[in-house]
Amino acid sequence: MFTPKLIALDLDGTLFTRTGEITPYTREQIRAAADKDIAVVLSTGRPYAGLPLAEAVELGIEYAITANGAAIYRIPDKACLREEGISPELAADILLHLPTKHLHLDAFIHGEAYTQSSSLHIVRHSNTLPESVKNYILTTRRQVEDLAAYVAEQHLTLQKATINFEQETDGTFIGREEVKAYLEGRPEIQLASGGYFNLEFTRTGITKADGLKFLCDFLQIPLEHSMACGDSGNDLDILKAAGLSVAMANAEEEVKAVCDYITASCNEDGVGKAIAKFI
């Protein structure tokens, strides 16, 4: 029986239910893993500011792979162990030339999330984002008037950017293909989706898998003794890299296809059941 020494957990659609909670049973299993000296870490597209900090400390979760691997943090003191961001010059160039009409853009900088206030209505009126995700975005962003100009003027390194799109009445995402084509034409960045038809980009070569390898080295745990749980496109690399890969029952089909094991859904203690099975 495979017994992991490190377990990496995605948040939205994986550790969190659709209402943004961690089930009591999953909490119990995370504590049980910690009691066996198994390192449970978070692995998310969110910035440090979007982590469930109090719950992580309560459950004994000390480390987080954030922004799709661009920044690794020790949770209790926000110590950044590694940052691999997009340079200020490149970030400014991409954002200033990005077709911004009909989209909501978040920029993750130094563990915080910045957004343009004029585009928040796209999040509020989204028919795709769960209410818990809408609330997370609306309550954790630092608002500026012109996000691209702010990044350029302040000469800021960008850990990650996330884009959500305005929708037509028939559900079509306005301008998504145009933006996707523009970003795919920039070889300096790496494009992924974190679910809900969004687009996310980091510096080329930076993924959650890269973050997992760093943390395994940092904690002196062989990569083959790691386990990862996920549900969406930005989890593909870490699931392929981990010693054991677990997909949620609610995961995208391309995620299930690369995984060793499929657990229950995020609403049905999927993470807790996977931990119980393998520890």
Put the structure in a nutshell.
The chain contains 12 helices and 14 strands. It has helices spanning 11-15, 24-35, 53-59, 88-97, 120-124, 131-140, 147-154, 176-184, 208-219, 236-241, 253-258, 270-278, and strands spanning 6-9, 39-43, 63-66, 71-74, 79-83, 103-109, 112-116, 141-144, 160-165, 189-192, 199-203, 226-230, 244-247, 261-262.
Give a description of the structure.
35% of the residues lie in helices and 23% in strands. The protein has an eight-stranded mixed beta sheet, sandwiched between helices. A six-stranded mixed beta sheet has the order 8-7-6-9-11-10. It is globular. Helix 3 links the parallel strand 2 and strand 3. The mean pLDDT is 95. It has twelve helices and 14 strands. With 279 residues, it is an alpha/beta fold.
Shape: globular
Structural class: alpha/beta
**Uncertain parts:** none
Q: Measured on Cα atoms, how large is the radius of gyration?
A: 18 Å
**Proportion of beta-strand residues:** 15-25%
Average pLDDT, all residues: 95
What's the order of the H and E elements? Answer: EHHEHEEEHEEHHEHEHEEHEHEHEH
Characteristic terms for this protein:
alpha/beta; about 280 residues; six-stranded mixed beta sheet; globular; eight-stranded mixed beta sheet; about 25% strand
